[in-house]
Amino acid sequence: MRRTFILSVILLLFFINGFAQEKITKSEKQHILSLLDKQAEAWNEGNLEKFMETYWKSDKLVFMGSRGPTYGWQATLDSYKKGYPDKTAMGHLEFKILDISKIDTKTVFLIGRFELTREIGDLAGHFTLVIQKIDGEWVIISDHSSGES
Fold first, then answer.
1. Residue 126: burial class (beta carbons within 10 Å; 0-12, 13-18, 19+)
2. Using one digit for the tens of pLDDT, what is the confidence trace for 24-54?
3. Using CA atoms, how far apart are residues 26 and 116, in angstroms rounded to an integer?
4. I need a labelling partner for 40 at 20 to 30 A (CA). Which of 67, 80, 98, 110 fits?
């Protein structure tokens, strides 16, 4: 009986949470998509500093890649510079957005695919972003990117 009650409460919480999820507005979606357009444009110019303007400039920023987590804005920039030291290594970046959902009034979860076309070999994979409105601006606070084999 107790087990049935606990299971019922858990199911009820999932049910309520599903209805409590915020809807992303057209304006918010436009801001998020323009943030990613800005990233791709900066990347394709070979400008990592400009690319990083879309990230939260904080020691609490987290980037998760194949080498594990990197914490902090500067450490993330340094990691990008090490992995992509020049325009040849960077290539041409394109994003495909697979899903955008709003977690709460100021937080968005995005799933996407990246494709890097390069003379030295193409790269592609998927990513998830947590994007949050901080001081009136949408910024990436967490990025988890995984390349395909």
1. middle
2. 999 999 999 999 999 999 999 999 999 999 9
3. 28
4. 67
- Provide, for the chain, the percentages of residues in helix, strand and coil under a 3-state DSSP scheme, each rounded to the nearest 5: 40, 40, 20
Give the residue carrying structure tokens 């303007």.
53
- CA dist., res. 147 & res. 57, Å (int): 25
What's the Rg (C-alpha) of the chain? 18
pTM, entire model = 0.83
Q: How would you list the strands of the sheet with 68-71, edge to edge?
A: 68-71, 62-65, 137-147, 123-134, 107-117, 92-104
CB of 71 within 8 A of CB of 55?
A: no
9 — alpha (psi -120 to 50), left (phi > 0) or beta? Answer: alpha
Range 58-63 average pLDDT? 98
